[in-house]
Amino acid sequence: MQEKMITKIDALPQLEKKLKVCAYARVSSGKDAMLHSLSAQVSYYNNLIQKTDGWEFVGIYADEAISGTKDTREEFNRMVEDARAGKIDLIITKAISRFARNTATLLSTIRELTSLGVDVLFEEQNIHSMSSEGEMILTLLASVAQEEARSTSENMKWRIKHNFEEGLPWGALLYGYKVIDFKYYIVEEEAKIIRLIYQLFLDGLGKEGIARKLNEMGYKTRIGANWSDTSVRQILTNYDYTGNLILQKTYRIDYISKKSVVNHGELPKYHVEESHDAIIDLETWNKVQEEMKRRRERIKWKKDRVDSPLKGKIKCGCCGKNYLRKAYAYRTFWVCATYARKGKDGCSSKRIDEGELFKIIEELKIKIDSIREIIINNDMTLYILNKDGTKFTANWNVHSRKDSWTDEMKEKAKQRELERQAKLWQE
Fold first, then answer.
1. Dist CA 111 CA 117 (whole Å)
2. Per-residue CA distances from 173 to 19, 36, 222, 240 (Å)
3. pLDDT digits (tens, 9 = 90+) for 48-99
4. Which residues make beta-bridge pairs with 57?
5. Which fold has domain 19-149?
6. Which of 226, 250, 273, 347 could disulfide-link to 339, CB 3.0 to 4.6 Å?
7. 75 and 55 Cβ atoms separated by less than 8 Å
8. Three-state secondary structure along 338-400?
9. Which residues, in sequence order, are bridge partners of residue 62?
């Protein structure tokens, strides 16, 4: 009988496990020089990690123009999520002030990362968060960084207050003007649009209508975006266009959150007369404010608008957004939220009269409480989906606003349009 040969095979050498390493970089200003600094940080860490033996490059997490006192840093939060997912072993960052200036935020983040087995290396202080003395030193240094942030904030407040007392704005950007040495100077190309907005409003157009008109004419905001009812409203209500200023209309609660709130008298306001050249005369501005008040009183924003049984159930078949309920003196209707903000350029949907909508529901013998969703299409068809799975299809008619106008109302509208055209030709 032949003996069996047994060959011993030595265990294969285990490959050394590499540390999964990333870096976090941040600059707290959006200025070109600071963003260049951010680019330099990203390049530095990219080379450092990839050239170090035993390190596996995970990536660079970089936030631009966001304060270290805030917790809303997208890349920072994404990095923490990746750490929780086990994708990171070591985080490298320049300094404690780059990581967080809020002591509480720093310590809570470090403690969570430590519990996950993730170390943080602060290069400038040469501190590892997972070292025996790491947390004690970090607490002291973070407290110093937080105090520096507080001191900087107090100094800035003093400078802003001093400017206000001198009647000078604090670097506020204002459409229609440029700022040179804390003084507003008219930008005529933008000023023409502002005057047109005021004129169109007094001629009878609403904020949404004005926005659509400006977009149709090819006008853009300063950042190159389309006009919206919100941007139009901001211009129509801004007292600064009269050549006068009201300073400190808002203020920041604290240096950590940096949240701005409306000043309702908590701090003094400063009224500066004739601080700069006016784009809109005071008489015109007052007329617009009175007209806005008159229109608000005319519109019946009924309390049950919020409690409507159809609220949140009506969807646009074109863009998928909810329909909004608007109640006016002459009738109530539902309109796509996208169309309400952007007009036809945003969505081609049609608005539907509420009376007709309820009539359709009644004719189909559907209980409103049983409706899960109503889809409105721009081909004048709608689909009603019930909670039990049953479906209904119906047609509806588009009614123009003019259907409810009297002959007198039509004549006034005609005269306003003729006057508006005459003013445009005079310009």
1. 10
2. 47, 24, 10, 11
3. 888 888 899 888 898 875 444 444 578 899 999 999 999 999 999 988 777 7
4. 21
5. Rossmann fold (3.40.50)
6. 347
7. no
8. HHHHHHHHCCCCCCEEHHHHHHHHHHCCCCHHHEEEEEECCCCEEEEEECCCCEEEEECCCCC
9. 25
Which of 239-243, 343-347, 348-352 shows the lowest mean pLDDT across its residues? 343-347
Cα radius of gyration rounded to whole Å, the chain = 31
| Full DSSP string of 199-241 | HHHHTT--HHHHHHHHHHTT---TTSPPP-HHHHHHHHT-GGG
**Helix, strand, or coil here: 60?**
strand
Beta strands at 119-122 and 323-327: parallel, antiparallel or unpaired = unpaired
Angle of CA points 44, 49, 51, to nearest 5°: 95
Domain boundaries, the chain: 19-149, 166-288, 303-404
CA–CA distance, 103 with 94 (Å, rounded to integer): 17
CB atoms within 10 A of CB 342: 20
Domains 19-149 and 166-288 share a fold: no
Which of helix, strand or coil describes residue 45? helix
Closest among 160, 177, 178, 158 to 169, alpha carbons compared: 160
CB 274 within 8 A of CB 244: yes
Q: What percent of the chain has pLDDT over 90?
A: 15
Burial pattern 301-335, b for ≥16 Cβ within 10 A else e, equals: eeeeeeebebeebbbbbbeebebbbbbeeeebbbb
What fold, for 166-288?
Hect, E3 ligase catalytic domain fold (3.90.1750)
